[in-house]
Write a structure and sequence with these properties.
Blueprint: E1 4-13, E2 16-25, E3 28-33, E4 43-46, E5 51-54, E6 56-61, H1 74-83, E7 86-91, H2 102-112, E8 118-123, H3 137-142, E9 145-149, H4 160-170, E10 174-176, H5 181-184, H6 191-197, H7 205-221, E11 224-226, H8 232-243, E12 248-252, H9 254-258, H10 280-292, E13 297-298, H11 307-310, H12 327-336, H13 343-357, E14 374-384, E15 402-412, E16 415-419
Parallel strand pairs: 1-4, 1-5, 6-7, 7-8, 8-9, 9-10, 10-11, 11-12, 12-13
Antiparallel strand pairs: 1-2, 2-3, 5-14, 14-15, 15-16
Bound molecules: zinc ion (ZN).
């Protein structure tokens, strides 16, 4: 592997930013300095006018393998991540069968190791994600699991305290999809959109109840990470929990700060996901929570589905949208260029904090000694979201939207895994 020198860029780290050259050798960052002369045989990338981040870490990706390979595979999810500037992804265990056995974890960990970006597997927190009995967390950790969650469904509240304590003892994060299904019922959209389009509503209490329950369980038992928060009330509860020192972290997703339920103009299931797009006031509150540190990380909840399934209409189509390839430009355009947050805060949300939550030593920083996972963003390049993606699926509500801040170069483990407009 040739050394790679990234020259003339603005190095944006969770701890600060400065004009710096960056030298990558042997899979590590070896030098970060105002001016570095290229060593012999070194490849040089000119990042003048660009922003150089520690590789983005996405805590929430559905790669659909095994069982849903028509929509995505680990290989296509990893390629989509590379194209999106994402160098590490955490896969969700709601595959078919669910990732709840050490044998499955071992098999797919081996497959993950062959992907061009860092692919980490989460395991189910309960057997079959059914919420009846805890999964064998210690054995799953030995088989390669990096986190536990029943994502797609909320962890059974009666098992949650014990699972929090077990995961904490193992040193791995426990993550919860906060949704009370008895409140969701047959709902498919937020009440405003549901009324307008004649659909069944998902009341906000479906998320609120589960968030409150999760926060209380964390206060009494140990760390818990809340997935895809979407409400002003969730952000408010989380802010208070953190002020009390409770061991909680949380993510939100680009669609919750970039869209609201008024953006659903017609029966288009590419706007259907869980939790649903919320009211404009929720979006505004989430933007504040992203800016003030209440929200720790932005994750995509990349959820590919076959086009034929999404064509079934809002009521019948499955929940979920893809997100890996639109993550960077949505964050750059709607957060940084819109002056909601600084570039340094973006480095915390996309790199530093998710790496810390997942316990990835060596990631989330540009400091020498860190892993050579790098995302170079071009803030000037204006481009509409294309209708075709590297992902095997194209269920995105953002197609056609003009955005700035597309990835120019993605480096994982010192290797170039994506280069805009060029071959790797
Ligand atoms: Zn979920």
């Amino acid at each position: 592997m040739r050394p790679l020198l990234i020259k003339n860029g603005l190095a944006v780290d969770p701890s600060g930013e400065a004009r710096r050259d960056l030298l990558l050798e042997g899979g590590k960052v070896t030098l970060l300095s105002p001016k570095i002369e290229p060593p012999p045989g070194c490849e040089v990338f000119d990042a003048a006018g660009m922003w150089v981040f520690p590789g983005f870490v996405d805590l929430h990706v559905h790669a659909r393998e095994p069982g849903g390979e028509a929509a995505e595979t680990m290989a296509t999810a990893a390629a989509s991540a590379a194209a999106g500037g994402v160098t590490s992804i955490l896969l969700m265990p709601n595959t078919s069968p669910a990732m709840d056995s050490p044998a499955l974890l071992k098999k797919y960990s081996a497959k993950a190791a062959r992907c061009p970006v860092n692919v980490y597997l989460s395991a189910a927190a309960t057997r079959g994600r059914a919420g009846r009995a805890p999964a064998p967390l210690a054995a799953l950790k030995r088989a390669g699991a990096r986190a536990f969650t029943d994502d797609g469904t909320s962890i059974n509240p009666s098992l949650l305290p014990g699972l929090i304590r077990t995961a904490a003892a193992l040193g791995l994060p426990l993550m919860d999809h906060p949704e009370d299904f008895s409140v969701t019922g047959p709902g498919v959209a937020a009440p405003g959109a549901a009324r307008r389009l004649g659909l069944a509503p998902i009341p906000p209490e479906a998320e609120e109840f589960a968030v409150l329950r999760g926060l209380l369980a964390a206060a009494a038992n140990g760390p818990l990470h809340l997935q895809h928060l979407s409400l002003a009330s969730s952000a408010g509860l989380l802010r208070r929990a953190k002020a009390l020192g409770w061991p909680v972290t949380a993510e939100t997703c680009p669609h919750y700060f970039a869209l609201c339920d008024r953006d659903i103009k017609r029966d288009d299931a590419n706007f259907k996901m869980k939790p649903p797009l919320r009211a404009a006031a929720d979006r505004a509150a989430l933007l504040r929570a992203i800016a003030d540190g209440t929200i720790d990380a932005i994750a995509t909840d990349h959820a590919p589905h076959e086009a034929r399934l999404k064509k079934a209409g809002f009521a019948a189509a499955p929940f979920g949208i893809i997100g890996l390839e639109t993550l960077a430009p949505l964050c750059v355009t709607r957060l940084v260029l819109a002056r909601r947050i600084s570039r340094v805060r973006l480095a915390q949300l996309l790199s530093g904090n998710p790496a810390r939550i997942l316990g990835l030593a060596g990631k989330g920083s540009l400091n020498p000694g860190s892993d050579a996972d790098i995302t170079v963003i071009d803030p000037r390049r204006l481009r509409r979201v294309p209708s075709g993606f590297v992902s095997k699926s194209a269920n995105s509500p953002f197609i056609g939207l003009p955005l700035r801040g597309w990835p120019a170069l993605t480096v994982a483990g010192g290797r170039i895994v994506f280069r805009a407009g060029g071959t790797v």
